[in-house]
Design a protein that fits this description.
Layout (H helix, E strand, L loop, with lengths): L1 E11 L4 H9 L4 H4 L4 E7 L5 E9 L2 H14 L2 H9 L1 H4 L5 E7 H5 L11 E8 L6 H7 L4
Antiparallel strand pairs: 1-3, 1-5, 2-3, 4-5
Length: 143
């Protein structure tokens, strides 16, 4: 069902790039980290400030599934229940599940869902029937 995953975030000029990189890698199990590469691209923010966009893309289905399972285990039960209860905020009803994890809590190895701007965006690509919410919830052990 899971066909890929991407994680992305922005590192502001005032942030330590290695810590932001670690926050992203903390969402990936150690067994998979060596096979993953974070790409960095310099850019300008809304007000012209320098930023670095970090992106990790995994298209291998088995590795993607392992990463998603790891993220699910890291998320507190309350966050998983929030996904279940508000699935329409996270699932586009077709092929993608979108999560936003607080960058600071990820750095501390205790990621939490967040609606703030300082997040790691997680995009989980799925293959299945359109509107198959039950299968999506099974990923989070919430069906």
């Amino acid at each position: 069902m899971i066909t890929g995953i991407s994680l992305s975030t922005i590192a502001h000029a005032t942030e330590d790039l290695s810590k932001v990189n670690s926050a992203v890698l903390n969402l990936v199990p150690e067994s998979v980290r060596s096979a993953c590469q974070i790409n960095a691209a310099d850019a300008k923010g809304h007000h012209g400030n320098p930023i670095t966009v970090l992106t990790l893309e995994v298209l291998d289905k088995d590795r993607a599934k392992e990463i998603v399972g790891y993220i699910v285990r890291l998320l507190p039960v309350g966050d998983r229940i929030r996904i279940r209860d508000q699935i329409d905020l996270y699932y586009d009803g077709r092929s993608t599940l979108f999560l936003r994890v607080d960058k600071q809590t990820s750095l501390l190895r205790a990621p939490r869902l967040s609606f703030s701007d300082d997040v790691i965006r997680i995009k989980i690509r799925l293959m299945g029937r359109k509107g198959d919410v039950v299968s999506v919830l099974k990923i989070f052990d919430l069906s």
